[in-house]
Task: structure prediction
Amino acid sequence: MPALAAWSAWTAFPPSFAPDDSTLAEILDGGQAFRWYGPTEHGVWSGSWGDTFAEVRRHPSGVLEWRAVTADARDPAAAVHRYFALDQDWAGWMDRLPWRSDAHLARCQAAFPHLRLLRQPFGETLLGFLCSATKQILQIKQMMRLLAERHGEPVAPGIHRLPTWDALARVPEAELRRCLLGFRARYIHETALRLQAEPDWLAVTEASPYAVAKERLCSLPGVGEKVADCVLLFGAGQLEAFPVDVWILRALSDRYGLQGWSPAQVARFGRAHFGPHAGLAQQFVFAWERRHGKAFPPDAATART
DNA sequence: TAGAGACCTGA
DNA sequence: CAGGTCTCT
Result:
């Protein structure tokens, strides 16, 4: 009998990563990643990326901690650090956002302490957002779950990883449709074939500067500006990426007075206003709009075009 | 860098 | 109708 995958011991996250429960939920299940489930009645989140399966919970002391298993039973600490980008200068980036002159941004930052951008595996991020068109988070998660169960290798007993693009290239489009993908099945199938024909395309794209990487991504079927920016922001650490979805459109319209602006115009405004880490600002504005937007109808003072 | 409709399926 | 893209006018 093969060695059973073993859990690492529960390990505390560093004090620099101390989100409250609501912010943790926003990080894990707010639309960046589609592979987290929770919290259980005991407050445990479980999720997976690549070959890693992890759990996150709050110790009675209040400290956030994690444990994980990996498919080949190597120490998962490095994988966890990379995924949560624990070695990055979040405090510095936060301080360099224009919160001093932007009261709404300051409010968003205050509302989600330690909100982070995840650094997910590039290929998986692409897969997730290729499925995201006109779908809610719940439905995207369902698609990912079916893809993993039916076409991904097991990483631990009962747990399957997402299929690699190589594996996806071997799945007929009709079979993909059975994973609730709908018209997105064609995008994924065709993308898989292209990636198969060019084995280092993903790695080269991930390592390319923002503008180049975005152009490359946009050449894939089903990938437009919004999806490309999500993939680069959540799967490549490109903080310049500024995805404009309906929430950001609404937020910039209602909070910044940009009624009637097109997505392209809003994107230009976002990069100019929020600066080189616009993608980070975007995450706060996005989270705030989803959670609190309804309680704050558009401000009459800014509601002029 | 305009606007409309199609594309799948299910909450 | 839904966190988008593609295509055509």
Residues 31, 129, 132-137, 139-140, 183-184, 187, 221-227, 230, 243, 245-248, 286, 290 of chain A lie near DNA strand C (CB under 10 Å from a C1'). The mean pLDDT of chain A is 94. The two ends of chain A are 68 Å apart (CA to CA).
